[in-house]
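Our platform keeps sequence and structure together, in a single record for each protein. Because each token names a local backbone shape, the row as a whole describes the fold. One such record is reproduced below, unchanged from the form in which we store it:
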Amino acid sequence: MKSNVKGAAPAAPEIGTGSCRGASGRLGMGTGAALAVALLLASCSSDSKGSSAEAATVPPTVAVAATPTTEAPATTEAPAPKSSEAELVARARPHIDELTAALKAKDLEGAKAALEAYDANWNGIEVYVNVRSISMYLKLEADLQVGIEDGLGGDAPDFAKLQAMSEELAARYDDAIQMSKDGLPLHPLFDDVATLRIIRADLRIATAALSDGDVEKAKTHFLTFKESFDSTVEPMLALRDFDNEAATEDAVDAAADAFADAATTAEDLTKAVAKVTSNYNFGVSLWSAAARNADASKTEFTNADLMHLTQLHDVRIQLIKSMNAWTAGDFERAASVAEVAGTTAFDRAKPALAAKGADGALKKLIDAYAALAAAAGDAKEVGDANLAAVRGVAVAEQVLLGQFWTERAVQDYLAGLPAIEPLAS
């Protein structure tokens, strides 16, 4: 069942609307899902090859569903249960040892391979560290990882200095693992975010491989990503935005077909994978917004929460009406309706968003589109700006009510909101 909310920018007809009307019923999932993942990586084993030729290609990653940790923290009278979060965070740790060993041996290619493997794993679980300690997150990523990357990219790497940085990265990472073990459980939605980010690791490696001109490596990792996408990701994306799930599935299939065709150029492969990434990242942003704004102490939504969804839906309506007008060449109407979206309609939703610190991001996206709506221009640029604003509305919905999004009553309420006519063809 498709959403009854439609609309697309000319350059991006796969627009996600922020609604999964009917999705929870179709999937048989009523309340918030938590598809936590246990990451099973061949590249995570401690006996990974360091400087061998095979190490230049990071082994594919595989993600499978597991049960999230929802129990209360253990008391001193009982052994602490294993934390799925701590186990997931720890998966990246062996790659730091591989990196240190390669740097000690002055093995540049081995070090780069180990760092790529580490980054792929780290990107999947960094959300846990980011939420628990921003200072630790910045130390691990912005300071140590970036410093090592820059050092390896230089003409004459200082292996001794980089080895010391890698050893410090290992020590600080151990602190991060301990933090996950000792901390109170995060909302289960964070496990869902980790699921999506872990599975995305192969997509990121495929993108980097294409940038390096290594089509075979890109193909290997993209097909591994597709396998996990088909088995795990599709229902997760549908829970937040059914239209985006369909668009992402189409993009994944199109990219797989492109890889299967030996005549496809690297440039076309890059474009196909970029389209997958754009849609996939939007899906991740919806889950992230829900997780980061979930309140474990709030056990049910209110009528006021539903009213906020109505207000945001009106912002969406105005944005898509404006894009319809722009597509038809009526720039005066496009501008006036865009102004309504960014003033009258937005102002109604602003207080609730401001309470979550989310008003500025949406307003910026709306204003960026409105600045282009008053005159003729590049259709892709204008369409992309409108798409970004509409997606911003969808993220805002998750900020306000994401933790209850899959409840039947919420979906029924969304289904009753006014439909939006599709863009003129």
Observations:
- The beta strands are 37-41, 61-65.
- The mean pLDDT is 83.
- The first strand starts at residue 37 and ends at 41.
- Residues 266-292 form the longest helix (27 residues).
